[in-house]
Amino acid sequence: MSRRALSATRATDLLAFLAAHPGRGFTYSELSKRLQINLSSMHSILVALTESGFLSRSASDGRYVLGPVLVAIGDAALERNPLIDEARSQMRAFSRKLGLESLAFSLAGGDTLCVARAGPPPLPGNIVQVGQRIPLIAPLASAWVAWASDREVERWLTAGGARRSEQRRLREILDVVRERGYSVALEVDGRRRIGEMLVELAEDPHSEPLRREFFSLIAELGHGPYQLGKGPGGSFLISSITAPVFEADGRVALSITLQGFGLRLSRKGIRDAGAQLLELTESIARAVR
C-alpha cells in the first residue's frame, strides 16, 4: 500500500475538522493545537489553502473558515452524487412530518460520514454533525454490513474486536436486519456516552486518550444486546432506526437514520416507524433511477 504524503494528510485533516464545525472559525494557533500540527507546518498549509480559495481568513479576527472554492466543489460533488441531494430534500419533509431527527450517511474509507441532517435539535447524547465520521466496526452500522459480502462482514467483526462467542449473535442480528430491511439500536448504557464522545472528538480529533475510550466503549456495546433482535413483545427505549438506500445494482449507497424518539416504543411502534423509514429510502432510490 502506498504511503500518504504527510502534507496532504494534514490538509485533509484540516478541511475535515472545519467541515465538522461549519458555524465556527478558528485561529492559526487553535488549529495547530486541535490538529496537533506544529505552527510552522500549519502556517504553510493555511497559506496554500487560503491562496487557492479553499479557506477564507477573517480580516477582523484572523479566524479561518471554509472558503468559496469548496462551494463549487460541493455543488459538483452533489451533481455526481444525486442520491445525497435527493436525500437532503426528502429528509426535510420526512422529519417535519414525524417530528424526529434524520441523518444521512455515506461511506468514507473505513468510516461512515454524515452528509445530511434534518429535523428538530438532537436529544442529549445523539449529537452528530454533518461532516462527522463514525467508524464502520461492529456493532455499529449494521445496516451497511447486512447486505455485504462474507469478507466484509468478517472485517467488520474483526475491526470491532468481537469475541468469537459474540460473532454468532452479531451475524444473527445481520440476518434480522436483512429480513426487516432496517436496524434498530437500543438506548443502552454506554451508547449515550459514545454520542457525547463524538462531540468531544470533533473538538479534539487526535486525542489518543479520547480515541482509546471511544473505541473501548464501542467494543463494550458489542458485549451486550445493543441491537433489537427477534423476541417477545414489550416496550423498548430506542436510540435509532437505520435503513439503507440501494443503488440500482443492489449495493448500499447511503443509510438514513431516524432518531430522537425519547419515549419507549412497542414492537408495533417500531415496525410502524421502520415502515415509514423504508418508504423514505425507497422513495429516494426511485427518484434518481
Tell me what you see in this structure.
The strands form 2 sheets. Strands 3, 4, 5, 6, 7, 8 and 9 form a 7-stranded antiparallel sheet that branches. The chain has a two-stranded antiparallel sheet with strand order 1-2. The protein has 2 domains: 6-72, Arc Repressor Mutant, subunit A; 81-287, Beta-Lactamase, CATH 3.30.450.40. The protein has 289 residues and is an alpha+beta fold. 50% of the residues lie in helices and 18% in strands. Helix 2 (28-35) crosses helix 3, helix 5 packs antiparallel against helix 11 and helix 9 (191-203) runs antiparallel to helix 10.
Short description:
Helices cover 50% and strands 18% of the residues.
Features:
289 residues; alpha+beta; Arc Repressor Mutant, subunit A; Beta-Lactamase; 7-stranded antiparallel beta sheet; two-stranded antiparallel ribbon; 9 strands; 50% helix
Poorly predicted sequence stretches spanning 5 or more consecutive residues: none
Q: CATH superfamily assignment of the largest domain?
A: GAF domain
CATH class of the largest domain: Alpha Beta
Number of domains: 2
CATH architecture of the largest domain: 2-Layer Sandwich
Helix-residue proportion: 40-55%
Mean pLDDT rating: 92
Strand content: 15-25%
Pattern of helices and strands:
HHHEEHHEEEHHHEHHEEEH
3D shape: globular
How many β strands by DSSP? 9
Structural class: alpha+beta
Q: What composes the largest sheet?
A: 7 strands, antiparallel
Span between termini: 35 Å
Q: The CATH topology of the largest domain, please?
A: Beta-Lactamase
The number of distinct helices, counting runs of at least 4 residues, comes to 11
Give me the Rg, rounded.
20 Å
